[in-house]
Amino acid sequence: xxxxxxxxxxxxxxxxxxxxxxxxxxxxxxxxxxxxxxxxxxxxxxxxxxxxxxxxxxxxxxxxxxxxxxxxxxxxxxxxxxxxxxxxxxxxxxxxxxxxxxxxxxxxxxxx
Length: 112
What we know:
Helix content: 55-70%
Number of helices: 6
Order of helices and strands: HHHHHH
Structural class: mainly alpha
Largest sheet: none
Number of domains: 1
Radius of gyration: 13 Å
Shape: elongated
Number of strands: 0
């Protein structure tokens, strides 16, 4: 596995899904909602996870890169509603984050 693939899994998939993995059937608590918004829209070290993915997308095949970029577009479109703690939007964004992480993990051969 390349260093870029490792960074992609760590810098994008791991951080993107920290809170998303904890969204269950119960109402989303305010602390989890805040963490979810940070994970989805604020990458560690600055910038956005979608931008960090774009920087590292060469680590995956073109089809996966296009699919993940499209999924990030959907996540980014939900930002206002997620930051306003709209429950359906937060659930949708969390599901998309898990789908993104799954695609990255499958393309890079490891779990984030």
